[in-house]
Amino acid sequence: MENIPLATALFIAGIGPIVIEAQASRQLYSRALGIPFKEEKGGYLHTESLKGANTFALWPLSQAAQSCFGTDSWRLDVPIPQAWIEFDVDNVEAATAELESRGCQMLVRNRKEP
């Protein structure tokens, strides 16, 4: 019998690397690959001009840690991520429950973004 998921991914809302060396990453993605970025507070670089995802962004590890754990340092008991991806789903709560029921650890639960 087919296992039908409780939630459906609609599209890729955002994707990109999690960066430790912000300047080196900017050199690669902006200067070497010609990606035009907007810069936000804290060195967060993003663009909505690449096809395939609504947003492509270089997310500093300290900002990812702040988003996930409320601290500027990544927790030692959790592997350091290399990239991030966000899917827009039809139901955030159902998607979270579905992933957790399959053994996925959610660092951020049921977050709805504008």
Text of the CATH class: Alpha Beta
Task: Tell me the β content.
Answer: 25-35%
Structural class: alpha+beta
> How many strands, what sense, and barrel or not for the largest sheet?
5 strands, mixed
Short account of what is shown:
By secondary structure, the protein is an alpha+beta fold.
Explained architecture:
This protein has helices at 22-32, 61-69, 92-101, and strands at residues 9-19, 38-39, 45-47, 55-60, 83-89. By secondary structure, the chain is an alpha+beta fold. Strands 2-3-4-1-5 form a five-stranded mixed sheet. The chain is globular. The N and C termini lie far apart (37 Å).
SSE layout and pairings?
Blueprint: E1 9-19, H1 22-32, E2 38-39, E3 45-47, E4 55-60, H2 61-69, E5 83-89, H3 92-101
Parallel strand pairs: 1-4
Antiparallel strand pairs: 1-5, 2-3, 3-4
Give keywords:
26% helix, 114 residues, Glyoxalase-like domain protein, 2,3-Dihydroxybiphenyl 1,2-Dioxygenase, domain 1, Glyas_Bleomycin-R_OHBP_Dase, alpha+beta
